[in-house]
User: What shape does this take?
Amino acid sequence: MKPESDASSSKAWLDPSAWDILILSTVFKVLLFPAYRSTDFEVHRNWLAITHSLPISQWYYDTTSEWTLDYPPFFAYFEKLLSIPASFIDPRIVGLNNLNYDSWSVILYQRTTVIITELVLGAALLRFIRGAVDPPTQRIISASLFLHPGFLIIDHIHFQYNGFMFGILLWSILMARDGNKLASGILFAVLLNFKHIYMYLAPAYFVYLLRSFCLSPSGRIEIKNFLALANAVIAVFIASLAPFALMGQIQQLFSRLFPFTRGLNHAYWAPNAWALITAVDRVLLKYAKSSGSNLHINTAGVVSTSRGLVGDTVFAVLPNVKPLHTFTITIALQSIVLIKLWFHPTYKSFLTALTLCGYASYLFGWHVHEKAVLLILIPLSLLAAERHAYFRTFVIATVAGVFSLFPLLFTPAESVIEVIYSIVWFASIYLPLSKRVYEFPKSLSYVILDLFEKTYLGGFVLLQIFVASFPVIASWKSSTDGPSSNGLEFLPLMVTSVYCAIGLVWGFMRLIFIYLHEDTTYQGQLSTIQ
Amino acid sequence: MVDVPDSISHFPSKSSRKFPSQSFTRSSSTSTSAGNSLVINTSNIHLQSSSSQIIAPIPRRPFLESDASSWLHTPPLSPVSSRGISPTSTRALSPYTSLAGNGHERLSISDSGMGRRWIRWSHKRGMRTSLVVLIFLASVFLKLCLGVGSYSGQNTPPMYGDYEAQRHWMEITFHLPIHEWYSYDLHYWGLDYPPLTAYVSWLCGAVANIINPTWIALHSSRGIETVSSKLFMRLTVIIFDALIYVPAVLVFSQTWYGARSRRTQDLAFLMLILQPALFLIDFGHFQYNSVMLGLTIMAINFFATGHDLLGAASFVLSLGFKQMALYYAPAVGTYLLAKCVFLGPTDGSRLFVRLGCTTVATFILLFLPWIPPFSTSPALILDPISRIFPFARGLFEDKVANFWCASNVVIKWKTWIAQEMLVKVAAVLTLLGFLPSVIVMGKTAWELKVWNGSAETGSNSNEHTQNSNQEESSSHTPILSLLPYALINSSMSFFLFSFQVHEKTILLPLMPLMLLFAGATPGSEVYSWGALGSNVAVFSMWPLLQKDGLALPYFALLVLWNRVIGHNPIRLISTAFPFNSLVHLFSAAVYTAIIFLHLLEPLITPPARYPDLFPVLNVLVSTPVFVCLWLWSIKCCIQVGWARSGPSDLVKPDGEPRHAKLSTAASDASQRRPSFIAKPQGDRTRAISLGPAQGKRLRRSSTHSAAGSASSAIGPSPSSLSRRTTGGILVEGHVEASSQ
Assistant: This one.
């Protein structure tokens, strides 16, 4: 995606290839301005209105719109900042009661802010190239991250500001790579106060910074470092929360941030372990019904199908899952990873542990949204060119993860766009990188594994054909049989979710296996950065 | 004059007079032995006349800047290319590179445009084979992104726009019997395109009926604007584009630029596929122009590979899809006739009869349902004909950047001259407009004709002529290299002078210009004109696109396009003084005007007296560019015509001794001096052609004469020339002469 740098451009502010990527991506993002927007667009517009029209004491209390402010304070400040130019461009954008305002001015403005704030990501990625072990490969990875279909789908069509926030995350990771661990910790604390979903990654940060920054290699505590980090992080949190703490709104704020009233699965099952278990439950229920065997059937679970309601998922056959269970499993898996990280606090180990922490939370967390898959894919991409095992994991997780984002856009034109874009994007990464990291399979078991994985990846083509043709075939059927809602309208979603979940769970197993077993014997490029 | 049997038949006396024959022979290495000289782009060579080292004719300024450099010689050893130079050619190369270092036109990689960089990178990264597919998919992605936006006539009941017209045709062709197609409810977007469009509409209608019949339900679907029907309509354009335009362009880039590097071919493909004017009109505004243009390109491809009959049929299909392709008809017709002349009374007339039969048969096939055995009355044929050619409309409708509209600012034609008279004047002006290319093509064919020569050449070459004639019937002619210029000339003269022109019609002159542009090296004249032409063509459609709600895509795609081709209007303006060519200065002026207009438009509301102020200013900026392009195409026609035939009446037939000298001079030529002329065998892949190269045939001919491939450096057909030029031709001389 990015040509190699040439000497003449080193003095330029941005090299030509970076300009190319920027221009190309901006062009298609601009072309996509009129595309479908989810309710998140209105959510963010409403937040502009809240932060602009109301005093700070009202921000977390306002319920004019159903889309109440439920991001941490830094994001609220960020919206406040964005609302200032908005009020000049079109005062109606920040009108509190101007619900569902969708004139061209607000579309233009909000879409543009996403593109501009995403430059944080671009800047971080460019900095990654400088000082990389293998700059040309890092260039490809950087370009791939900047052009990631996840950002295109979620930010530029669906509408969110993930590019901006992952930019901060990548800055933080970059600081860790360059040995500036204090800055890394501060940036992560800032990020947490923008969007609290990044708590998924916090354990890895905590262990890494504690072990490698606050303790000396021999295990002695570095009191100066420790105090610096602790004070800085506390300062960040004070800057964020102090105004609300002084007004005594902390409890209200936290009730907005952590709504524990939601169910195990989101409306569309995020492709995680629970999706698999829910699917098994459904299959068992069908089996129990048809064979009439005397399985204990929970009647509440029979009703609870994934009917697109944000409610509790109740299993019909299997025992029900409580938030505590998910929490325990997640922590248990993360602690395995963190123990390893404690003993090998290198950059590469940190990066893998970070990915695995996000991964474990995604797979076993309570009420995970499919958009959270970016928490896995983005750090995992940085590991992609490490060596073949990582690359293959990256490929499987990326294909499954990006595919699992497709149902997010259900309008016909955007569904075609996302598929084609993802194919082009994937091919432009896969072709150059696969040649770079290719390894000859060592034994027959590797060959068989390789075959299975390739078959699985090939299955996505069939899956896409099925998903795309399903509505047409269904409409033929309904026209011949008469309208009948036999509960099959969610079948493509369920199949997508389950199929992607298989890949993502397998990717997790691969990555954790690689991390725990091979790392010491098998060194990749990133191992040179301590 | 024509029939110098061997050796230096094209010897231009001008240059031979100018330079002592010694230096001349040295400069042009028509060596047959040493495989080490190279065709070199003279535009990049800055020879110092004071240099005692280089005993070569000093190219004078017009020569350096003539567009000849872009087609006569190889592309510069392009910065894009990382291909190793074969060891044998390095000696000849080294002086070039050192000289080129001084050249201000030498481009570093960073200047060479995004397309080149990207293709270079992908080739290096082992994506060579899949690159074409990736480019295609990426373009489909961009087309779909553009398709998300609005289209002509969105949300404007009761008539809507072009989108509704096309959709309505699907509706009526699918639901009505064929003989009602051209007569049904003509007030609501009655069908007024030729039958192939109707058949395509029927096919789309049939598919739509399978997926969702409400999209094309008779009457009730009028003005339907659901998201799914919009996607379907957008996809029909993209699919027909992928079925016709994309393969045509792909084949074009690989045949016409077949002698160029794979990277150049890929770049040509990329440029042709991303051309913003067509992009915006087809996938934004909504039309199926790419089908018509694709069929014409297909015809050119067939001509280039020697399949004239298929080419003619393909062109008729293009006409049958959209009558607008008539703009190309003079050029295509002249080309085919010229080829018949070129081939002589026997072969030529045979070809003529075949072409006639093919053309008529294709037309009949297209109109079959309206012709008596299949229709109820012979009068029915008048329905489509009268719909396709509406003479009842005005001289021009909206503001179009052509002669009539631009001059209308000063001269109110409609009040001065009667409508019928205007039609006649327009016809005559159009005719005069494309006459130069017709004449040049005919004259070139006449001068190069093979049949007259065969009688006078010796028995050996006579035999050869028989062979080459055999080949000729299935091969292209040297006049092929004139075809793109003739296409620009004829379509541009139609655009500028003919009756009833729409601003979208600029796509037609733009297409052949882009075909040439796609293979041009940055900095050459073709490149400059192509970049200017494409940008101004898009600009000339600005009022239309703005009305369609495509303002944002207009700017976005223009930026992308200029980035892809490595053209920077801002830098062009800032470096306008000192300018390095007139095109440069002209471009800078035009771009300044365009940017100024775009900045002015949101700031100033036009006075009530002149509501059309900005469209008229747009016309006044665009028209001069199109007029210049038209003049330029005439100039190029004449240049290329001369290069092909040569002002050969000045040639003295004393080639034999000189030929010997040339051969012995071969070793000299391989010395440390830039040599202008290719040695055939070593570097065939580097030879640039204006016309397509035919790998095998070329190689064969180049083995039996150096001249064969020397001529291949200009044009596509070595075999036709090889007889006449056995021994060595001095292509450089032609250009020298032709650029005077």
About this structure: The two ends of chain B are 20 Å apart (CA to CA). Residues 91 and 672 of chain B are 7 Å apart (CA to CA).
